[in-house]
Amino acid sequence: MFRVGSYKARLPGEDNCILGFVDTPGGKIDIKIFIACEYVHCIGAKDFSEGVDSLIWKVDLLPQPEITPGYESIFLREAVKKHLSMILNRIPEDIDIRRSEGRVSPPVVYLRDEPAGVDISLSHDGKFTAYAFIIPGGNVSSCDKISL
User: Which residues pair with 2 in a beta bridge?
Assistant: First the structure.
């Protein structure tokens, strides 16, 4: 048992990680919860063909407080583009992350203006950014975490 902020947490798994699932009206979602000194991060997806470890994810600490509106989003998207470029063997400039205009919708990854078919999730809150993605048909089993 250890303390996360002012909360006690007991972790049954290794590496401060809890595996589980959530039953939703749309079906079962496999989840993996990571607990670090300064954050709790959960990843999950439906239809993991190779299990939850096939999801690639990262939590980043912003290098400085917000300096302009949208700073967190810009920082996050640039970090994702760099990570995707290494996996897809592309340059970051070939990759774009867009949302549909005029409505809230999931982000879509484009390679040279063509949809890449990469499922992606982006989030930012306070001093943290986080992302997760799956490369369809990819044989990638990686997990990046920050140490705080």
Answer: 9
